[in-house]
Amino acid sequence: MNENWKHIKTIIDSEPYEINGLNIWDYDWKRTGNSINIKDPNYGQDYSFPVYEISDGTKTSKFAAGEFSNCIWGIYMEQNQ
């Protein structure tokens, strides 16, 4: 598992959520080519989530995200961010 990544939030699809002032749903998620292996914080199921970047042209934010179940997303951030 990726200990340097922390579960930040579990949200429903399209629920507003900002990272560094950027609502993640307002931007195209660009895959970085990396992924993280995590456990669902509630049920302990193993997942591999892609790492994404979003940018508004002046600032860029990186996060990992994936669906725990249909339209229920887990959002992860590196602890050093």
Task: Note the beta-strand portion.
Answer: over 45%
Main sheet summary: 5 strands, antiparallel
How far apart the termini lie comes to 18 Å
The number of helices is 0
Total count of strands: 7
**Class by helix and strand content?**
mainly beta
Unreliable runs: none
Order of helices and strands: EEEEEEE
In percent, how helical is the residue content?
Answer: under 10%
Rg over CA atoms, rounded to whole Å, is 12 Å
Task: Describe this structure as you would to a colleague.
With 81 residues, the chain is an all-beta fold. It has one domain. Helix content is 0%, strand content 60%. The protein is built from no helices and seven strands. It has strands spanning 5-12, 18-19, 22-23, 30-39, 46-55, 60-69, 72-78. Strand 5 and strand 6 form a beta hairpin.
Question: What are its keywords?
Answer:
single chain, 81 residues, mainly beta, five-stranded antiparallel β-sheet, globular
What secondary-structure arrangement, pairings included, does this model have?
Layout: E1 5-12, E2 18-19, E3 22-23, E4 30-39, E5 46-55, E6 60-69, E7 72-78
Antiparallel strand pairs: 1-7, 2-3, 4-5, 5-6, 6-7
Short overview:
The chain has 81 residues and is mainly β.
